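User: Quick sanity check before I run a bigger batch. Here is a single chain. Can you write out its predicted 3D structure?
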Amino acid sequence: MTDKIVVAYDGSAAAKRALAFASALAQEKGAAVLIAHVLEWSPYSFLTPTEIEERHARRKEEMSRAETAILAPARADAEKAGVSVETVIKYGHIAETLCEIAKDAAASQIIVGRDGQSSLGARVFGSVAGSLVQVAPVPCTIVP
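Assistant: Done. Predicted structure follows.
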């Protein structure tokens, strides 16, 4: 069985650093990289049948755009580094969904980038990286 490293990826500069780190690590270990993009979504909305249909159509459009604009370039970058690459897009709470992805993939670790900003919002509500390290089912590496 091939070792698998999950990389949280949103196209930001921090995510690109995390992907570069994960690609180098995967190359060194002979591991595969699973690039995961999570679209934040809350199931706690009360919608009419028409709104549910519209929301479903919007979700499909968002996933298609994310695949083209975010994951395809990331996949190309990781493949240039010579590693085996898979991608996945899911909806949900970001940290929880990344944990589910890691469990489903039997990943050995999760790598996430940190943007280094210390805004009031991040201190009050927490960051994805901070939440992830508290709930991750496998070791989690935060790339500055």
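The mean pLDDT is 85.

User: Great, the batch can go ahead then.
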